[in-house]
Amino acid sequence: MYQIIIIGGGPSGLMAAAAASADGERVLLLEKKKGLGRKLKISGGGRCNVTNRLPYDEIIKNIPGNGKFLYSPFSIFDNESIIAFFESRGVKLKEEDHGRMFPVSNKAQDVVDTLVTTLHQNKVEVKEESTVEKVEYTSTDSFKVTLNNQKEYQSKSLIIATGGTSVPQTGSTGDGYKFATSLGHTITELFPTEVPITSAEPFIKDKRLKGLSLKDVGVSVLKKNGKKRITHQMDMIFTHFGISGPAALRCSQFVYKEQKNQKKQDIDMQIDAFPQLTTDALEQEIRGLLNAAPDKYVKNSLHGLIEERYLQFMIDCAEIDEDLTAHHISNTQINTLVALFKGFTFKVNGTLPIDKAFVTGGGVSLKEIQPKTMMSKLVPGLFLCGEVLDIHGYTGGYNITSALVTGHVAGLNAGSFSTTID
Ligand SMILES: Cc1cc2nc3c(=O)[nH]c(=O)nc-3n(C[C@H](O)[C@H](O)[C@H](O)COP(=O)(O)OP(=O)(O)OC[C@H]3O[C@@H](n4cnc5c(N)ncnc54)[C@H](O)[C@@H]3O)c2cc1C
């Protein structure tokens, strides 16, 4: 009989194991794959965006999927606690743009190694290549965990830290939803978030903009009435199937939600290529460039305004002839061009599937979880943490922060729960 069994060796399970074992509890961690923290190792482009140093309110804003739930666990273990955890174990961290924290070494492996070393020091039993198939709450108020090779383990408390269902080759195949359901929990609707967006527009299908990046543009998802549901001002890239890059990834969950709201597949998105300029200011700039080179073709007089391929695309959309010189352009054509730059609207028809998403939206309902302990309100001794919960953030360290924070709180309380009932 173990005091605590943890299912899943991602950031939430590893941090839960570190906290649960801190006072010498007998802890078993079961991981399906060979090697721990596989998803953590590929996060942040292999550099591991281990947390974020923005103030709480900003962090919560960047976790549109129930971020407010984290205020409670943050009061016990927060982003600064994560930084202290790693730095006190020799992993120096550095802050990059938007508060993103990375190891100075730029190696995700250092983060994983630190968690694994802590587990070894605390004598946590780790069994890799151990796929849990079934969990049961027994009549003796303990948990029975059965592997797919029929091996059985028992514990006083159980932590489900199996992650979501995106990028399943890392081991996160959504098994935790099945375990939680079998113990009486509700799973909210699962959907892909932080995922590239697809479009069947001719300019996407003919790949004319494929590979083109736009820097610091405003990308919006539009509601049925044409108003903006959400705008993210960041970089984006056109791909052979649609759009991607930070702004598009952040918008992706709203594409999914608007499709549901509008009850149709095709919805509108908009790109403001000059979010820092008002329409009037952009018009003045364009008129200035045209007036400075009146005998040049429009495209040549506007050279340098924006990436060449996007400029040509906008000129084509405005139906301005290739051989029109700047001094022949009409006021209507200038206005059309300015309007297109400020709000190019196009149809999108969805996102890539959930297995291609960086993060899974939805999960175990938070109404059934105590925010101060991460214990189930339905089954005493059952704890849940990480992406298996109905919490999802933008990329930028927010999901990993959520996993480490909820993992720590779950581990801490699973430890005290199992010793109280000794
Ligand atoms: C390419 C990529 C980049 C990302 N970049 C960022 C980023 O920059 N910032 C950010 O905040 N987030 C990022 N994320 C998301 C982040 O990595 C996850 O939110 C985080 O890893 C979730 O941690 P977790 O411990 O809850 O689950 P996971 O990391 O998914 O770990 C779950 C573990 O449980 C194991 N498991 C599952 N089922 C079983 C079972 N039946 N038996 C035993 N073990 C089981 C799995 O093998 C896995 O090891 C990225 C994700 C991807 C895919």
Automatic annotation (TrEMBL):
One Pfam family cited in the UniProt record for this chain: HI0933_like
Domain RsdA/BaiN/AoA(So)-like insert: 192-359
Domain RsdA/BaiN/AoA(So)-like Rossmann fold-like span(s) in chain numbering: 3-412
This protein's UniProt keywords: FAD, Flavoprotein
InterPro entries hit by this protein: BaiN-like (IPR004792), BaiN-like_dom_sf (IPR023166), FAD/NAD-bd_sf (IPR036188), RsdA/BaiN/AoA(So)-like_dom (IPR055178), RsdA/BaiN/AoA(So)_Rossmann (IPR057661)
Domain of life: Bacteria
Name of the molecule in the record: NAD(FAD)-utilizing dehydrogenase
Cofactor: FAD
